[in-house]
Design a protein that fits this description.
This protein is of the alpha+beta class. The protein folds into 2 domains: 26-116, no CATH class; 120-497, no CATH class. The protein has helices at residues 6-15, 26-41, 51-58, 65-84, 94-106, 133-136, 229-235, 258-266, 283-293, 365-374, 379-400, 405-428, 435-441, 482-485, and strands at 149-163, 166-177, 181-188, 200-207, 214-218, 221-226, 275-281, 300-302, 305-318, 321-337, 342-357, 376-377, 443-447, 454-458, 463-466, 471-475, 491-496.
Length: 497
């Protein structure tokens, strides 16, 4: 990893977002304590699949005291966290995923001072695990007759499954350039928040072939607040609240605007001297989040829920190289009547970043939006994870029903909201249901005339082709034919108006 990994910035953002979540995770401790040993003993070992961890174990007698102490502390914390959090049956591959995460973190360059979260980099899968240049015939993005076209591939990342017989399951689909590599997935307990809603955390990174351009997505982070001081007192009393991963309650803080969340909690993770060039609304991301929440298209408030998304442009220097980046997040605030005022259930969600060398960011604007709009949860994953979270909230509502009716009602509302989101996501599997908001989300539906199957693709391009193996080409040139310029057999898709 010769280049700064923006994933470490994005993931660490959630890890230190609030003062109540400052405690280091096992992976952070392992990274901090063993990074030097990994570079000393395992510099020639390819990160991933637990190889760095295995290398350190082989050299256990020669490890520094600092690394040994970190390993012991991380082991204790992981054990305590597992005992304090509700979880599905641990799959046999969970240790491999954790080892892969540790590999990526420990192998990070010494210049990366930002601690990474326990989510790290999980094992990922792709419908085409190794997309070859021969199949696409070009790098991406590449130039076409009208100026540009994109050669993309559809990839899939996984999440933890329900039991040993099903250790993983497809979680999210997205599109990245055909020559890029992707790593990551969904990690159980990957967010430092103690809220049940953050038990499943997405952490992924897509990187260009030369490592200079990076798209990263980090985990959600939730917190709560109330107008009534007595409710706030209860919020800060862990003995009266449900404890999630790591025996931590939900953090307590006032609702924030999306821009304020980035400025106060994320920017400090970037190198000193980072400059905010601009901040603008990000309606496409806001609409993506609203769709997943089951809300009508539009900005602002809908009933008891308000949403907002922004995109921030940054410039900074890393290792003597000038960099530019986009940093984006959506904030969702659910508002319930409670005591003398309202109860605020806040979520920073869809945290994403895109970095490129200075002068290259604008040329990748379309690519950034194409990747962002392509991220879709698998219906099976939504059903499973939503069902798990709903059960947790309903169980907690029953547990506290005889103690505190207010908390019981709030947990019941959370469970119902998750059920509503799950049902909406299942409807969303049929893209035709959401034609009215496609323009705002930045997508349109294309159909394969040979099979009748449909696919949502970016609306930044008017023409699209596929080759039958999850590779796609998008262009705005009506005369462009990939079969005349690229290898492979490309079939044109029809846009559905």
């Amino acid at each position: 990893m010769k280049h700064l990994s923006l994933l470490s910035v994005v993931i660490a953002a959630a890890a230190v977002a609030w003062s109540l979540a400052n405690a280091q995770t096992p992976m952070q401790i392992l990274q901090a304590g063993c990074a030097d040993d990994a570079r000393k003993f395992c510099s020639n070992v390819q990160p991933g699949g637990g190889r760095i961890i295995a290398c350190l174990k082989q050299n256990k007698d020669s490890l520094s005291d600092k690394c040994k102490q970190a390993a012991a502390q991380a082991s204790r914390m992981a054990s305590e966290g597992a005992q304090g959090a509700p979880a599905p049956t641990a799959p046999p591959s969970s240790s491999t995923s954790a080892a892969g995460a540790a590999d990526a973190l420990i192998a990070a360059p010494a210049a990366t001072s930002t601690p990474a979260s326990a989510a790290g980099v999980a094992a990922s899968t792709s419908r085409r695990a190794h997309a070859s240049n021969a199949s696409s015939g070009a790098k991406s993005p590449t130039k076409g007759a009208d100026g540009s076209y994109l050669v993309m591939k559809k990839v899939q990342v996984t999440g933890p499954g329900p039991d040993a017989a099903h250790p993983t399951m497809p979680a999210y689909d997205l599109m990245i350039p055909s020559t890029w590599k992707i790593q990551g997935g969904v990690v159980f307990g990957g967010s430092p928040s103690g809220c049940f809603s953050d038990l499943y955390a997405i952490n992924l990174q897509a990187t260009s072939a030369d490592g200079s351009t990076i798209f990263a997505a980090g985990p959600d982070y939730s917190w709560q607040y109330a107008d009534d001081p007595s409710v706030v007192k209860s919020l800060n009393d862990p003995n009266r609240r449900a404890l999630g991963i790591g025996n931590k309650p939900c953090p307590v803080a006032k609702p924030q605007k999306a821009e304020d969340y980035l400025r106060q909690n994320i920017l400090k993770l970037y190198p000193s001297g980072t400059t905010v060039v601009s901040v603008a609304p990000f309606p496409e991301l806001n609409e993506i989040v609203r769709k997943r929440q089951g809300l009508a298209p539009g900005n602002g408030s809908t009933g008891s829920t308000r949403t907002e998304a922004v995109r921030m442009r940054l410039t900074y220097q890393k290792d003597g190289t000038d960099q530019e980046a986009w940093l984006a997040v959506a904030v969702v605030v659910n508002i319930y009547p409670s005591g003398r005022g309202s109860f605020y259930d806040s979520h920073a969600t869809s945290l994403i970043a895109f970095s490129a060398p200075k002068g290259k960011l604008d040329g990748n604007d379309k690519l950034f939006q194409v990747i962002t709009s392509s991220i879709q949860p698998e219906p099976q994953w939504v059903t499973y994870s939503g069902g798990m979270l709903s059960k947790l909230y309903r169980a907690q509502a029953q547990k506290v029903a005889t103690i505190n009716k207010m908390w019981s009602d709030l947990y019941a509302k959370e469970a119902q909201m998750i059920n509503d989101e799950t049902q909406n996501a299942m409807k969303g599997a049929d893209a035709s249901v959401f034609h009215e908001d496609q323009n705002i989300r930045g997508v349109q539906t294309f159909r394969d005339p040979a099979t009748g199957q449909t696919q949502e693709l970016s609306n930044l391009y008017d023409h699209a082709w596929q080759n039958g193996t999850n590779d796609y080409i998008m262009s705005n040139d009506p005369s462009f034919n990939p079969n005349e310029h690229l290898s492979g057999n490309w079939s044109q898709l029809e846009p559905i108006n």
